[in-house]
Structures are given as structure tokens and as C-alpha cells.
NADP-dependent aldehyde dehydrogenase
Amino acid sequence: MTDPSDARTAASPTDILGASVIGGRSVRGGDGEIAAIDPRTGVELEPSVGLIGSEELDRAASLAAEAFSRFRATTPLQRAALLESIAKNLEAIAEVLADRVVLETGLPRVRAVSETGRTTGQLRLFADVLREGVFHDARIDRAQPDRSPVPRADIRLRKIALGPVAVFGASNFPLAFSVAGGDTASALAAGCPVIVKAHGAHPGTSELVGRAIADAVAANGLHPGVFALVFGRGEQIGKRLVEHPAIAAVGFTGSRRGGSALVQAAARRAVPIPVYAEMSSINPVFLLPSVLADADALAASWIGSLTLGAGQFCTNPGLVFVPAGDAANTFIASAGRRVSAAPDATMLTPGIAAAYADATAKLSRTDGVTTVAEGEADDEIAHSGTPQIFAVDASTFLSETALQEEVFGAAGIIVTVRDVGQMIEILKGLEGQLTVTIHGDQTDEGVSQLIATAEERAGRILFNGWPTGVEVGHAMVHGGPYPATSDPRATSVGSLAIDRFLRPVSYQSFPAELLPEPVLDANPWQVWRQIDGTPGKV
Amino acid sequence: MTDPSDARTAASPTDILGASVIGGRSVRGGDGEIAAIDPRTGVELEPSVGLIGSEELDRAASLAAEAFSRFRATTPLQRAALLESIAKNLEAIAEVLADRVVLETGLPRVRAVSETGRTTGQLRLFADVLREGVFHDARIDRAQPDRSPVPRADIRLRKIALGPVAVFGASNFPLAFSVAGGDTASALAAGCPVIVKAHGAHPGTSELVGRAIADAVAANGLHPGVFALVFGRGEQIGKRLVEHPAIAAVGFTGSRRGGSALVQAAARRAVPIPVYAEMSSINPVFLLPSVLADADALAASWIGSLTLGAGQFCTNPGLVFVPAGDAANTFIASAGRRVSAAPDATMLTPGIAAAYADATAKLSRTDGVTTVAEGEADDEIAHSGTPQIFAVDASTFLSETALQEEVFGAAGIIVTVRDVGQMIEILKGLEGQLTVTIHGDQTDEGVSQLIATAEERAGRILFNGWPTGVEVGHAMVHGGPYPATSDPRATSVGSLAIDRFLRPVSYQSFPAELLPEPVLDANPWQVWRQIDGTPGKV
């Protein structure tokens, strides 16, 4: 292929070209190449990916800026149709997509299939959000011409799209937190063009999804700048994307180091912009006295959650607190037996497998840390991680701050503590978390105070369950205080995620003919709104 | 007075001690002194103010941290009662307060009285917001135990307070944007303790208000760490406050330089925090063809808005665009006559008066800028500013970026342009604004595109009015893209301001006994909420 601009017409939706998608067309960059690796075999996958340079990145950003005004002015129903088109396009290539996910990530096929469902469900959730219309936050303060000493003007408010959004996909959810993931779905729903910087670990998957989105954009008659997918070096193209004047906000899922670098870069801009980075969490679990009789069953369900997907979840429950005593011993022994029997698992990338091996080796060498059990290594897998669990007492945990760092993978630490009071003290000192899990009930002494402390430390608190498996709904918060995320006011999963990409605008004394629909007297879109501070669908 | 901790019992609500308020008590700092100046006479006012050092600042922050958990757990009705107590305490000292405002700011007494009403009205608005309960953003996603392939858990969401908030008051609204202003009212409403760094221009006013708040905190049986007022050097105490680990968010109204410095300091923290800084805006006004027959009347109302309060409003309309021609000439001539007749006005501080004199002198010397008229100086006033207006053509305006910088005071620039198309082009290139004002109607060609452009440049758009006089209501946005504010997702005026100081938390599979009230099945507080995505008061 000599002319990259021909790529789109040439390619079927299931072809992988190793190309970015800019302006609705495939563009194979010429600034170096990368290749994905099958982590099960260690073999490089075809085709290689051509990385774009600054010029192509700037073109994608300019197109997004150009597309913005018209895209944000589309009706919510038009954007709902776009999201549903994307979902349908993904479903049409679901088999090829699942195959490629398995190749590039080593995740089991059943997971690839379920993640496709989650991704399309997420797109359709935002279509529902657009139809319901709460997101407009429409408000009307009626004029009071006779108010004394001065009359009150008619003032109305609605929220509009913030501007083009840069999205950095995660390694661990090649679909649901990647090219067509929650950040993209919520930004498009808000009316923001999106530029996705693809994760290098699953480029073929990214390209298939990226073209599915671009095709939906075209089929819905929208400006081709509404969506772009770019492959490029993070320190060059990623940074340039965040610094580009056209970009108004950033969504990121990944490491603490990577997220913090974007936060800093965004704050240093001439016009600072918000960064929603989901980064690091160890998701502490507290076992309260009322459940300790079930220590064996709890150990079984914990190990199930800990080892799910080779432990490669942001909400992986890596830390369990249990009151010292017989039940704790039962819990530790039972968890140990199950880990010993747990299979070695393929990790997402060679780098992640190596980091996991380093971190667990470091844990096992730490003074006061007992290695409880380790799964058996499987030499057939090129880049794997064996589940491992460790035990420490509270004083060791408190003195070794390294024990509070996230280990990405199926490593768990059991901390034996004195009582619930000590749990609360320790939780107060932990960094911000995505989740806190409590096993217990209302009869446990101190549980209310533990919950209150958890509210200040985490975005989501669970009872008698496990934090892996994040529901995509209206009441979900996938967020939390730093470093769980860079902005505790936001969630990256669930319908509230749209609020990250909106800003309010007031309309004072407007002629009715010039008002936007959500604040027209007749309420033609039938949105929920506040009239003089009273909520209703009027 | 030898023991500063006795100050509170010793002082009546109308005494001014030159002291900070920490832990519910007056604390006269020993780290240097400042004195306010009566800008009408140039005379230093008694008493001097004792500035606090780092140790006292840290104590205020520690007390706020200590107060946080209990304060955020108060019911909305308890916080409504606090806000109403503060309003009553201010009303009880209204006469003394107004006298002191006049002394310290040179503002007319009628303004001091009306601003007291605005401040108490603002406190009561947030009491209403607390009673209505929309701010909880309560959501319930009901369990689906039979869902396939996996059941859905019961998940509920509400918003909680972010943490202690640092507030930096403005010079130009000694009451409504200062110690008990919108930032403080909305943060307290959210359940966040507040530490106000007082503005040095009106310390006596600040102290009276600060003690009114502290007294209300005590009378409502709340922890004394819920509120503090500190006097200290900005570069030392202000910076330390923003950097203090106990502080979770910052509200600021002031200069672009000051606000940007806080934004940078907050981003460099180990745990970055949001800064809501309202900074700089020139509030462009566009006169469209349909209104040009009223050029004379428009000039009169413009000069009224421009010179109100010596032009010392963030929403002062400093820039008027008018199509070149006879009507523009009438407008300029009429505005000029009125400015020549406008009285010299006292400015807030010697520094503001000097900066205004510098900026207007620079404008008058700029190539292509015509000085249309200037008010008459009044040598009786020590620190005054004469209203001044200037005229330029579009090409001069576009080539001289200095013409786009805010001049704080009653200086206005009239820009003659070709047509509405050129207005739109110019508006696209302007920095972010608090307001854009349009005089015209739906018959003006290009008006829809002008509005669409204004939406992307400003937080509020007005028709056929003037932007000074910001209503405190539910639909008000006092915000906008950078540098109008540091965060266009927020407003610092109106009920939506509470959202700045809240964050969402999810509760998954909670025992009913342990759920917070806004998401209890019975909805005991009768808050508006979403059940499975459907809004209602159920």
C-alpha cells in the first residue's frame, strides 16, 4: 500500500493493518514500529504497528477541534445512535475481536467475549443516559419582574461538552477500559470528540475497535474528527497529545507513575486542563468477628477473586485484615492450600510479568513477612505469574510502607490485627483506594466507624462480596482519593462518568427562539430539571 | 490583653481586635502587623492586625482535619441551621459591619448594606439546597439476583464532603465573596470545614464576619475546627495553607497571577487537590444591528454598568463591539459625554488605584487607540480612579494583545468591527470569559453562531442586559474557561457551587441498617434520586 489514505476503503472491518485511524482513514505511521507479543508464547504478532509522529498527531488534534462545535451541537438522540452503532459494529466483529484479544493478552476467550458484552453494554448505558437527560442538569430560575429592590432576570442553565478529550487505554481491559471503553463512551455521550492513544500491548484489538468507531462516526454522518486512534511513543506522542491546545480533558487508566506524569503535564499547560487518571489501589478487605466462623469459605472466595484474570484488576483485593486468633489461622491455612493448587497464569505483557516477579520476590524477602503459599509455575507459559500470598502482623505492616504499594497481579497479603479498632486506625493511614470491602454485619462492634473511615478513603465500599467485577450502572463509583485516582470527584465507570466531560453555561434573559432545548419552557426533550430549585420533569 | 485565648469571651460581636479566629477563639498573631487603609483619606485604620505564623496556621488546619469527620456526618438540616445562624449573626451586626465596610473599602454605604443582604441571602439559599437534597445525587441500582450470567448486586450512591476547604476572599466584595461568601457558604453546606485566609484590604470587616461564623459554629454545638479565619502573609501563610495535607480543596477569587500560583502549588502537592480560582475576565459585549437605533440609550446603560462600584466587578463589561458606521459614532459620542460627566470614584485600595492609573495610561499611549473621554479627577479622594473609555478598530484590537487584558476598574474599550461575522471571529480568539453579553434579538443575522461561540468562551451569556449584578440562584454560572476561572466545570455563585466540594461514594450490598439516609429504601429525607436510572422523589 503506497498511499496510506487509501487504507480505509481497502480494509474490511476485520483486517488489521498496524495503522492509526485519523480523519476516518487508516494511517500507518512512519516513525518506527512496534509489535505486540503473545504472552503465552513470547512470539511477536503480525502485523507490526507503524507509529505516528508529531505531524500526524497534530492533524488528529486539529480535526478534533474542527469537529467539536458541530459534534457538541448534535442532539442527545443523535449521539445515542452513534453509541449504538459502535456497539453493533463491535458485535459484528465479535469473533475476530475475541480471537485477537486472546492472542495479544493471554486472557481466556470467555473473558474476551464477556468483556465485549460489557463494552457494548456500556455504550448502550450511555445511550440511555442521553435519552433520560438528567446529565443536562437543566435549571430554570424564572424572572421576577416585580422583585424589590431590583427585578430578577430569567436565568437558565444547562451543561455542554467540555471539548476534545484524550483517552489513554489500560493494558488490563483491552476492550472495556480501552479504545471504546468507559472514557470514550462517556466523552462521546457528552459531545466531546475523542482521540485515543492506543496501549501498545494490544494494538490489533485497538485497531479493530478504533475502525469500528470510525465507521460508526461515518455511518452516522458525523465529522471524521469526532474520533481518532493513534499509535505512538508515550513520552512523545502521549505527552504532546496532553499538551495540545485543542485538548480539553484527559482520561487515563494505568500506572501511578504514568498517571502522575500526565497530571503534571496538564497542570503546566498555558491553559491547565482536568486529568481523570485511575492509577493505583490495593483494595483492603476487613474480616469482622461476625463472619470468622466462615473463615474457610471466605478464604476460598478471596482466592477466587484474587486470582481472577491473573489478579490483573484495578480492584484486585490484595490486602486482607483479620483479627489474630484461631479463625485467622484457619483463614491463612485455607487460603494457602488454595493458592498452592492455583494454576500459573499468563500475564498481559512480558513487562507486567517481570514487574510481578520482582515485586513478589521483594515481598518474600521483607523482614517479618511470611510467605504462606505460592502456586506452581508452568514452564509452558512464556510470561506468567504464580499466585502468592503472604502474612504479616499489624506492626510489621505499619512499619513497612512498601507493603502498601500495589502489586499488579495475584499477590495477596494477610494482616493479622488486634481488633476492629486497629483496623480503623490502619485504614485511616492508608492511601486513597478504589474500594474497601467489609465482611461482617451490623452486629459487629465498630462497624459504623469502619464504614465512616472507608468513606473517606475509597470510592466504593462493599459488604460481604469481592471488589472485582465492577458493575456498569448508575450508582457505580469507580474512583476514589489519590492515588486511586487523580480526582476523587469523578468516576470512570457508570453513568456519572459523563459529568467529567461537561461544564455548565447560563443563559440570561434569552429570547425563547434562541434558547437550547433542555431549558425551553415546553421541555420538548422531556428532561428532568429544576424550576426555581424544585426538581421535576416539567 | 495578655492571653489571646481569652479574646473570645472578652470581645463583643462588634469589637475588632485585629485577631485571627482559630478554634473558636480570637488569636492575635505575633508575626508582624498590617493595617487597613481608608482609601478615601489614605489614613491607616485602627486596630492593626497581628499576623499569624506557621504554627498557628498548622493548628487551624489540624483542627479542621479533626472536625471534618463529625461535621460531614451532620444532617443537612443541622448544616442548614448553621448557615441560618450565621445569617442572623450578620444581621445582628449589620450596622457596625456596614460602617466598617465603608471605612475599609470606600464603597458607598448603600452597597455595603445591599451586599450584606446578598451574603445572608446566599447563606439561606444553601440552607434551601440542603433541605431540597438534590445535591446528594442519590442513586439506587436495585439488585438483580436472577440476572444471567452473573447476578447484579444492590449498589447505591450518594455524594459526601470532600474535606477541609481553604478559601481566599476577594478584595472587591468584602462580604459576598469574602469570609462568609459563596465559597464558605457552599463548602459549609457540603459538610467541609473552612479556613478563610482573610484579604488584607478589609481586615476589620473580615474579623467581624469571621467571629459571627465562629459564634454560630459554637451556638450550634459544632466542633470549633469547623471554621477558622487567619490573617497572614500570602506568600507564606497562603501557600502553606494550600500545601497543608489537611486541605482538600481551595476556593479563590482574585488576580490571575495569584490564582495561577495557587493552581500550581496545589498541583505540586504529594496529593494534588482541586483549586477553584476565579481570576480574570473582560466580559465582551456585542451590539448587533437590530439594536443600533437605540445607540444613545445603550451608551447610557453601558456607562452605568461600567462605572458601577468604580468598575471593580469581575463581570465589568470592559469591551464593547459595535459595527462601524453612524450608529457606532452615536454610541461612542454618547458614551463619551456620559463618561466626561461621571464622577471620580474611590477605589478599593491604594494598590488597585495605582494599577488602574498605570493600565489606563498604557492604553491611552497605545498606537491606534483613541481616548474618547475621561471623567474628572477629584483631589479630595486619596485613592481614586476616573472612568475612561477608548476606541479602536478591529485590526488594532487584533494586533494588540494587551487590549485583551483585564483592567480592573471603570475603563472601557469600544471596538468598531465590520459585521457580526467579524465579531464571531474575534470572540473565537478571545481568552475564556465569565460572561458574554449580546444586545440584539433572534432577527439578527449570525446571532445563533455568535451564541454558539459564546458558549465555548464563557460561563454565562446575557441578552439585552449588563453582566454586573450576578444573581444568586439555581441557574447561575459564575465561572468559565481559563483564565476566567481555573476550572470551567464549576461555578462559584449559585446553588451548583456546592458540587465543587462533594465527591461520590458507592455502597454495594450494604445491610439496610448501615446505609446512609439518602439511599435508604424509605427515603426518610425525601430527596430526589435516581432508581435504576429513572429520576424521581421516590
